[in-house]
Amino acid sequence: MSVQTVLGDVLLLTGVLLMLVAGIGLVRLPDLYNRTNAVAKAGGLGLVMVLLGVVVLDPGPAAVVVLLLSIALQLFTVPIAGFEIGQAARLSGAPFAPGTRVSADRAGLPDGEPGSTDDGDR
Amino acid sequence: MIAQDLVLDGALVLLALCLLVAAVRAVVGPTDADRVLAVDFGFLVTLCAVALLAVRLQTPALLDLVLIGTLVGFLATVALARLVVGRSR
Amino acid sequence: MASFVAVYLGRFLTANVRVAGQVLRPRLTLEPVVVDHRLRCRTDAEVASFVALVGLTPGSLVVDRRDGVLTVHAMHATDPADELASLRDLEDRMLTAWRGTGGDA
Questions:
Q1: Touching check for A1 and chain C: CB below 8 Å?
Q2: Which chains touch A (3 or more CB pairs under 8 A)?
Q3: Whole-angstrom Cα distance, residue A43 to residue A82?
Q4: What counts of helices (H) and strands (E) characterise chain A?
Q5: Which of the listed residues A59, A104, C58, C77 has the most CB atoms within 10 Å of its CB?
Q6: What is the pLDDT of residues C31-79, one digit of tens each?
């Protein structure tokens, strides 16, 4: 086995193990907000590491371009998806886990004044 | 090459486990937002599995599927999240 | 700019390791906090990139944004003030990298 194969396999396995950790987190963590963090980890680092591993294993120039593009898109979209889910949870009134210290004014209020969420630059 | 195939097969089994976890969370999940999160995670795991399959079966064409899947998964998550918000009002 | 990328990468990786460690610990020792962070970013592009940077780091999650205030949920923080300080620090570094000057514009 060449160095290239070993490096690629190590990256692939690390990525898959990160996905597994995220799966464990999805079961164990107490509330939705904490679970979102676990999934952000799977998307942010797990999948990116797997794709980088495939890049290292060198499937050909065209495939490398596609892979790098999907890594960039992945890094771009993960935080947005997390933000959307977090906001959906807040607005639908998902409870925080007991023990959460809330030092924010409006946290936990599923307030729904129409038009207050699509704010522009003020 | 045999050793690498074994590694990849093991990784695919682990991913199948993750998918099971996501399914459980989607069924149990106390709130609808939890289900959206589970679907999002399931999408990520599937993409991961497709990328591994591309290596295992030596078919780089499968990698195009990863690119499209990234976009579709993101759109699905955002649309579902908005749906949850809309229904709870 | 390059130094910001390096700092953020370090932050991102340590956050990943920390979250993984917390998930795998036999007994969960989470100390979640929710804090309000008053944004000093002015343009939409700055706000968007700050939200993306915070959201990409595992362990911190932007829950809401309204009237220039960002509500952030952090998974493990010994002190809400510490969490706020670290958010402030990240924002400072980001604005310095984007504008080439300090935060208060």
A1: no
A2: B, C
A3: 10
A4: 4, 1
A5: C58
A6: 788 888 888 877 888 888 888 888 888 888 888 887 778 888 888 777 7
- The answer, for C80 touching chain A at a CB cutoff of 8 Å, is yes
Quick one: which of A69, B47, A40, A26 has its CA closest to C56? A40
CA nearest to A73, candidates C12, B49, C52: C52
Q: Is A38 on the interface with C (CB under 8 A)?
A: yes
Interface contact flag, B40 A81, Cβ < 8 Å: yes
Cα separation, C103 vs A102, in Å, equals 27
A14-71 tens-digit pLDDT? 999 999 998 988 888 888 888 888 888 877 788 999 999 999 987 788 888 999 999 9
Closest residue in chain B to residue A96, using alpha carbons only = B31
Chain C touched by A106 (CB under 8 Å): yes
ipTM (interface pTM) = 0.86
